[in-house]
Amino acid sequence: MTKNLRIIFLGTPDFAVASLDVLHQNNFEIVGVVTSPDKPAGRGLKTHESAVKKYVVENGLKVLQPEKLKDPEFINQIKELKADLQVVVAFRMLPEIVWDMPPLGTINLHASLLPDYRGAAPINWAIINGEKETGVTTFKLQHEIDTGNIIDQKRVVIEDNETAGELHDKLMQTGAQLILKTVQRIANNDYKLLPQSGVPVIKSAPKIFKEDCRINWNKNIDQVYDLIRGLSPYPAAWTILNGKQLKILMSRKDNTQPIPSPGIAETDHKTYFRIACSNGWLYITDIQLEGKKRMGIEEFLRGFREKDFTIK
């Protein structure tokens, strides 16, 4: 018999909205939604609401926006909601007093096939490392991040030319369906837990910093190509062109023509701009030069007046 669960949902960005929406549309009782506080953003410092907050307001759900998750007032607020289960998708680390509160615990959605790619950037690192598949995992929260007992997983193919942005959107929808399936199984008490303990973790997904995004043209063409698509559209792989930072957002490979030294750039100043890797040419198709907007290569070349291209 299916239990009518009282659910608290915790999330902030677009990635979380799909999961919240699928639970709401399938008539689960969302007794409260926890998201980040509103913050000033942009040139005018206008108040910015998270994607989850916007959804909550549009759908008339109860919202909580604590500055600190250990605040006694916030703890009392969620206690009063008497939730059976908490669902976390793309939210910050929770203190034990929060995640251990509901009788059925707290579940999390992670954008990888755990235990591989634990960490802050699993989508980016899967592509950067040239993986052919990834997936999503639901698991029970416990003390160490991304180490809880697994409830369910769904595998997803990574296409050869897929960017991190495209894979993000695909996993967002796949993850929402897995959240729905997982919550339904919990409501029916029809699930088993698979421990992650004792399973070796070879691949991790740490936070990405600016220097992680700098292109090393001495690497082979596949490594550079995967770095570019694994960081596109954000935070974006970059190099230095004539003393300015150049973000490279899309490219294509050609390893059929001979190359000079890695890092050498060639262009006809009209239709193509290519840079040599260790074993082939990378043709740059979408870029953003420091201080400029994103543009296709032909538009860029029409406006770039310098005769020589020097890459560092």
Give a structural overview.
With 312 residues, this protein is α/β, with parallel strands linked by helices. It has two domains: 182 residues, Formyl transferase, N-terminal domain (Rossmann fold, 3-Layer(aba) Sandwich); 94 residues, Methionyl-tRNA Fmet Formyltransferase, Chain A, domain 2 (Roll), CATH 3.10.25.10. It is built from eight helices and 15 strands. It has a seven-stranded mixed β-sheet with strand order 5-2-1-6-7-8-9. Strands 10, 11, 12, 13, 14 and 15 form a six-stranded antiparallel β-sheet that branches. Strand 10 and strand 11 form a beta hairpin. Helix 5 runs antiparallel to helix 7. It is elongated, with a radius of gyration of 23 Å. The protein starts with 5 loop residues before the first strand and ends in a 9-residue tail after the last helix. The mean pLDDT is 95.
Structural key phrases:
312 residues; alpha/beta; Methionyl-tRNA Fmet Formyltransferase, Chain A, domain 2; seven-stranded mixed beta sheet; six-stranded antiparallel beta sheet
Task: Describe the secondary-structure layout.
Elements (H helix, E strand, L loop, with lengths): L5 E6 L2 H12 L3 E6 L4 E3 L4 E3 L2 H9 L3 E2 L7 H10 L3 E5 L6 H4 L6 E5 L11 H7 L4 E8 L9 E8 L6 H24 L33 H10 L6 E5 L2 E11 L10 E3 L5 E4 L4 E9 L5 E2 H7 L9
Parallel strand pairs: 1-2, 1-6, 2-5, 6-7
Antiparallel strand pairs: 3-4, 7-8, 8-9, 10-11, 11-14, 12-13, 13-14, 14-15
Helix pairs in contact: 1-6, 5-7
